[in-house]
């Protein structure tokens, strides 16, 4: 049986290292959080929000699901958005996809996978909206990459069209929604340049 004991020793080392640099770090952070960013990303273990942004605990509020979906009836995602925007008053919402996303790739075939097929339907909708553009690409990898990008663009639109963001904008709240795609091969984020701020 494999042990998870090493996780506790790793955790201890991590906390010790942070305290070495800033003895009051955890004490201060335990009192409040005031992140400027809400990250809506993929659950993929290779795309950890804080680490790839170089941000410390307390600096980014995070929601992750398979293929970074923003579904208008997903109470989990909507609740995260509401809390981040209305209570924490984040200034930026970042939807971040990544090339090589297993969810996106799986949505492009008709193989039955059980429960997850219902979630992947949302990606099939993205494909349906952009069918001509996607079908015009013959290289399979390029097709998947394009779908990853189009998916991010669609999810940015879903964030921007949510009642939560619309309300924030109508109240004059400063809030920008961005779409990024992360490259697993070099660790670099690409800005899809679809940022919207309600103005
Ligand atoms: Zn993914």
Automatic annotation (TrEMBL):
It catalyses: hydrogencarbonate + H(+) = CO2 + H2O. Its cofactor is Zn(2+). Its EC number is 4.2.1.1. Zn(2+) binds at residues 42, 44, 98, 101. GO terms for molecular function: carbonate dehydratase activity; zinc ion binding. Transmembrane segments: none annotated. Reversible hydration of carbon dioxide. This is Carbonic anhydrase.
């Amino acid at each position: 049986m494999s042990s998870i004991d090493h996780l506790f020793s790793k955790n201890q080392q991590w906390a010790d290292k942070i305290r070495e640099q800033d003895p009051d770090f955890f004490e201060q952070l335990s009192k409040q959080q005031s992140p400027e960013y809400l990250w809506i990303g993929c659950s993929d273990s290779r795309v950890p929000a804080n680490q790839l942004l170089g941000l410390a605990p307390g600096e980014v509020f995070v929601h992750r699901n398979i293929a970074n979906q923003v579904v208008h009836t997903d109470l989990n995602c909507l609740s995260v958005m509401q809390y981040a925007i209305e209570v924490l008053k984040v200034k930026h919402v970042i939807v971040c996809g990544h090339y090589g996303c297993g969810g996106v790739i799986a949505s492009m075939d008709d193989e039955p996978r059980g429960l997850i097929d219902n979630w992947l339907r949302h990606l099939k909708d993205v494909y349906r909206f952009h069918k001509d553009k996607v079908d015009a690409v013959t290289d399979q990898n390029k097709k998947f990459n394009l779908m990853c990008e189009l998916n991010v663009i669609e999810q940015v639109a879903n964030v921007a069209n949510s009642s939560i963001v619309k309300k924030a904008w109508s109240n004059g709240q400063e809030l920008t929604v961005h779409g990024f795609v992360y490259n697993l091969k070099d660790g670099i984020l690409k800005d899809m340049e679809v940022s919207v701020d309600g103005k």
